[in-house]
Write a structure and sequence with these properties.
- With about 300 residues, the protein is an all-alpha fold.
- The protein has one domain (about 10-290).
- About 80% of the residues lie in helices and about 0% in strands.
- Helix 5 runs antiparallel to helix 9, helix 6 (about 95-100) packs parallel to helix 9 (about 150-180) and helix 8 runs antiparallel to helix 14 (about 270-290).
- The N and C termini lie far apart (about 40 Å).
Length: about 300
């Protein structure tokens, strides 16, 4: 069936369900986080690259130096996002980590103002301030010992860094995505990200081989589920629905991941995480909607 016949809203549902499994799959893995991140991106690239090369070889060969630089910047940002976020799940709760990594609309709004000189309207400013207040609540709760994990404040900081890098990924890839079809775009970006993660893994002295069979199955599941059916479908949906709808839909990931963590991992987030997380998500939703409509 042609993707043009698919309902983008149904695609969003599938994508949110798929990305909601990501944190659980990472927690199930005993491999070093950077290794899991590397193989997730590598296997995702391996799944989409043959189609991209078969159908869009001319688009890839026609990439200019400017496009290659944009792809490199986008891939580097994506690599840092994965490295920081995967690591964060070793230190803080699933609920806190996924909530903070989904705060990227806030960083996009601020980045667009600083880098692209876009106007920040009243509703956008309110959304950013509300989310910052929610992050403060979560951090205060961690300082008072209400967080989940061996070092929740550190894990939350890594997750926020992951959110910041997602914003960089979106801003850096904006122009490239307008000129390239979906599969060539994600192939280039995923490929650069995989190369960066491999470099980080080797430089840190972390082994990239010798893992048991169940780890390789988890790496593949991360690539097929959150990778192909999650983020790649979300990139496709951006062609057919407003970006604000995609951003707001992604707020379902923290809810889905937290629920799965409670059921599968018996992990219940603390009160500060629940309250602060709800405030953060409310601010993110306000920011995403405000940036798509005149204020």
């Amino acid at each position: 069936m042609s993707t043009r016949r698919l309902d983008p809203r149904a695609g969003l549902v599938v994508a949110v369900l798929a990305v909601s499994t990501s944190a659980i799959l990472i927690r199930w893995s005993d491999a070093p986080p950077v290794v899991a991140a590397f193989y997730r991106v590598l296997f995702t690239t391996a799944l989409v690259a043959p189609v991209a090369l078969g159908r869009h070889a001319e688009d890839l060969s026609a990439l200019s130096r400017r496009d290659l630089l944009a792809a490199a910047a986008t891939g580097v940002a994506l690599a840092v996002h994965f490295a920081a976020w995967f690591e964060s799940l070793s230190w803080t709760s699933v609920a806190a980590s996924v909530t903070l990594v989904q705060s990227h609309p806030l960083f996009v709004a601020v980045g667009a103002w600083l880098v692209l000189d876009e106007r920040v309207g009243r509703k956008t400013a309110v959304g950013v301030l509300v989310s910052v207040a929610g992050m403060a609540v979560m951090s205060i709760g961690d300082l008072l010992g209400g967080g989940v994990g061996p070092a929740p404040l550190y894990g939350n900081a890594l997750a926020a860094l992951g959110g910041l890098m997602t914003a960089g990924y979106l801003l850096a890839g904006r122009s490239l995505r307008q000129r390239l079809p979906l599969l060539p775009y994600v192939t280039v970006v995923y490929g650069v990200a995989a190369g960066c993660l491999l470099t980080i893994t080797v430089a840190s002295g972390t082994p990239i081989r010798g893992y048991p069979t169940h780890e390789w199955l988890l790496f593949l599941a991360m690539a097929v589920g959150p990778g192909v059916f999650g983020h790649t479908v979300l990139n496709w949906a951006l062609e057919h629905v407003e970006s604000s709808l995609v951003s707001v839909s992604l707020l379902g990931e923290p809810l889905g991941s937290a629920l799965l963590a409670f059921v599968v991992l018996t992990e219940a987030p603390g009160t500060a995480t629940l309250v602060g997380g709800a405030v953060v998500l409310g601010g993110v939703a306000t920011t995403a909607r405000a940036r798509s409509a005149p204020e």
